[in-house]
User: Which sequence fits this backbone?
């Protein structure tokens, strides 16, 4: 089942510069919590307007934090619609479909951005622009990360938003920042524990702190009174070790995602 009215609509508002990151919590708590593994997360499909179109974000890179979240929020499937990874941007009327920011379903029609990747059936991306290559690289990083992470594919989920509201954590804008944990205790010694921090603010970076409650450490089988290490595995090269501290101080650029492995 498409997670459309819930997650897609909430993320679209954020991608367009509005919205509220707390809506993400409301989606899984009230709408899909018990069957999230059966919800297909997506940002484009045949019914919706393309991210890069003037009717949506007008810039495909604005959707990268939302794609990270769609792909890692729970253990359900994520869909990447054809051409999304190269920033398809419909600009003219496509047959019966008209000019509406969508790729037509009803006509034989060319999709120039995708054809740049096809490159006369070489399928090597030889005609992609530098921007298109950058977009495709971002999506490749997301999918490679997800497919290589047992915590994302099979692990538990812990929403940190409730503990990091405005005023509870330093400079944490809960309307634009969303943070959560994914973890597995598989084979214990090789357990994977990940902290995701998403900044949906298109204009502002934040020097902020993220609090992690004691029961989350218990669920992850970590001793919060011992040494805890946070190692950046995406978006940050920081390696932080802390003693008996449930707060991580980070700087997150605008429109970006940080991922830390916790040990």
Assistant:
């Amino acid at each position: 089942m498409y997670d459309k009215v819930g997650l897609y609509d909430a993320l679209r508002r954020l991608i367009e510069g509005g919205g509220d990151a707390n809506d993400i919590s409301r989606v899984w708590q009230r709408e899909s919590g018990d069957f999230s593994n059966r919800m297909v997360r997506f940002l484009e499909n045949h019914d919706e307007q393309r991210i890069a179109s003037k009717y949506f974000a007008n810039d495909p890179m604005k959707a990268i934090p939302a794609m990270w979240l769609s792909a890692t929020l729970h253990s359900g499937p994520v869909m990447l619609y054809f051409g999304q990874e190269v920033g398809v941007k419909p600009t003219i009327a496509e047959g019966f479909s008209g000019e509406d920011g969508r790729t037509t379903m009803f006509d034989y029609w060319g999709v120039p951005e995708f054809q740049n990747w096809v490159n006369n059936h070489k399928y090597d991306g030889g005609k992609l622009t530098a921007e298109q290559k950058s977009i495709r690289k971002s999506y490749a990083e997301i999918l490679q990360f997800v497919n290589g992470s047992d915590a994302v594919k099979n692990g538990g989920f812990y929403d940190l938003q409730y503990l990091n509201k405005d005023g509870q954590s330093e400079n944490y804008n809960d309307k634009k920042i969303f943070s959560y944990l994914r973890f597995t205790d598989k084979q214990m010694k090789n357990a994977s524990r990940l902290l995701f921090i998403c900044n949906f603010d298109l204009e502002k970076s934040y020097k902020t702190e993220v609090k992690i409650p004691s029961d989350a450490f218990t669920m992850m089988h970590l001793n919060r009174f011992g040494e805890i290490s946070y190692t950046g595995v995406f978006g940050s090269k920081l390696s932080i070790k802390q003693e008996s501290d449930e707060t991580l101080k980070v700087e997150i650029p605008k429109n970006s995602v940080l991922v830390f492995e916790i040990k």
Notes: The helical segments are 4-15, 22-32, 64-72, 112-118, 130-147, 150-154, 214-219. The first strand starts at residue 156 and ends at 159. The radius of gyration is 19 Å.
